[in-house]
Amino acid sequence: MLPLVTLRGTPLEQGRQHGAQLKDRVAANIAVYFDRFLRETLLEREQVHEIAAQYAGHIERQSPEYFAGMQGVAEGGGFDFLDIVALNVRYEILYYQFGKMAMAREAQADGCTLFALLPEVTTEKHLIIGQNWDWIPEVQGAVLHTHEPDGLETLAFTESGIVGAKVGFNSAGVGLAINGITTTDDDWSRFSRPAHVRFYEILRQRDFNDAVKVITGEPRACSTNFLIAQPPGFVLDIEAAPDTEGFLAPVEGVLTHANHFVNPAELGVAEPPNPRRIYSRRREARLAELLLAARPTTLESIQTALRDTQDDPFGLCRHRNLAEPPEQHYVTVTSAVMDLDARVLHLTDGPPDQSDYQTFSL
């Protein structure tokens, strides 16, 4: 079961509560990630700390609130501050190395399939978004319910120890889902605002257009795909490469996206070689097929689609591929369905064909 943690006060105070209440889960994630940094990216602990220390100074200037949140997690749980920073910039470290190593055909990143459903294709006439978030099996998640000093609330899934929750929404109805994507131009050393800092800032916007500007307002170090939505029917998928963006909208009321650029040549980007990219395209197409066929969709039909195991173990509902070494194991860590009108979040703790959905609401 995913724990629900309520955070109040300043970013520093929220961080302390996060670190104290999720101490064991944060410690587990530190161990998992430093093992993966070594196994998958060949980075020793000292090297990871060097990267984290460089990023820390930039984050302090870019987002003092986020920096304070990281300080709070470290203080609240009694952790090395650079361990917490490393967790919070793990996207930049891992995805840059994924791309770099893929050029040498040593590693490939894949996983995650998201969706958006416009009100006209849902039985409740609500705006629904969600995803299967596929990642390292041992990662420990949590649900954060934050109460901001200005009255805004957020409800979202995070990896314990990471301040910027990545799948969720706020009390203004702004919702977020994400995919990892890569280009040959990704480079953590550009030190632009990290992905998880952007996730944090998106969920603290009250207006759809302001949320979009968090992504488009400046270049990025590494590529990320963002789905941003807000009732009554605002939906935009943004394929954000380091220096350019592509924009996608729903077709026939449905939008799906996975771990590839839909048209990289049109954007002028190059993706690292990945023999499993075909499965990303299949997942994207399969989820669209299932959701289009289910119109008007219900919560049950959406959850059934997210349990689909076609192309197992590389399907929508991801399972370990035991034929691969442990450092290349990925599963659906959580499956999310978000009703942005009702402000209700349904999440699993593990693959949805093996885990029940828990329901959280604002």
Automatic annotation (TrEMBL):
The keyword Ion transport does not apply. Residues 122-347 form the Peptidase C45 hydrolase domain. Keywords: Acyltransferase, Transferase. GO terms for molecular function: acyltransferase activity. Signal peptide: none annotated. The keyword Transferase applies. This is Isopenicillin-N N-acyltransferase-like protein. It comes from Armatimonas rosea.
